[in-house]
Amino acid sequence: MRRNSLEDPRYFLNRHLSWLQFNRRVLEEAADASNPLLERVKFLAITASNLDEFVEVRIAGLLQEAEQRRGEIGPDGLAPDELLPQFAAELQEFVKDQYNCWRAELVPGLAAESVRVRKVDELDSEAEKVVEKFYSEQVEPILTPVTVDPAHPYGLPR
After folding, report:
1. Which H or E run contains 143?
2. How many Å apart are CA 55 and CA 129, to the nearest integer?
3. C-alpha radius of gyration, the chain, whole number
4. 28 with 105: CB under 8 angstroms?
5. Contacts (Cβ under 8 Å, ≥6 apart) of 92
6. What is the 3-state composition of the chain as percent helix, strand, coil, each rounded to the nearest 5?
7. From residue 75, how far is each of 10, 49, 58, 87 by CA, in Å?
8. Are 71 and 65 in contact (CB under 8 A)?
9. Interatomic CA distance for residues 64 and 78, integer angstroms
């Protein structure tokens, strides 16, 4: 009986592509009308948060590796410069699907439940004051400016 070599890339999944597939499944939960509406909104929020982290950490790390030509080929046989074009196409499609879920499904569903999502310029003066007070008292105090440059590679693996 011949044993398969564990060096064969066919036996490995790329961890970044696998992560994208996981986040795609979370987005499917957001689009699933059998889930409660607010749970669907939470699922969509999770995909947005996950996507931010993915781009800030994983994609940024792969870009840095590709630019420095130090990207090692992973166990799946893919180098960073081979992965990046795949990510570009997948991420564009993913973001399009997120926006479609939000605009075509969740916002109308929320409106049907008398929950309105408004832009700031659509607020009346009283609502605008409430938002400004909330921002200045609750949000602004916890914001921390971060410098991102080569000397401060925020979120990038070292």
Report:
1. none
2. 34
3. 21
4. no
5. none
6. 65, 0, 30
7. 9, 28, 17, 18
8. yes
9. 16
The one-letter amino acid at 148 = V
Q: In sequence order, what DSSP letters do the residues of 17-53 get, joined into one string?
A: HHHHHHHHHHHHHHH-TTS-HHHHHHHHHHHHHHHHH
Distance CA 87, CA 23 (A): 13
pLDDT tens track for 23-79: 999 999 999 999 999 999 999 999 999 999 888 888 888 888 877 776 677 767 677
Residue 119's Cβ-count burial label (10 Å; 0-12, 13-18, 19+) is: exposed
The C-alpha angle with vertex 113 and arms to 107 and 117, in degrees rounded to 5, equals 40
The predicted-structure confidence for 3-12, as pLDDT tens digits, reads as follows 666 676 666 7
- The overall pTM is greater than 0.70: yes
Please give the Cα distance from 37 to 40 (Å, whole number). Answer: 5
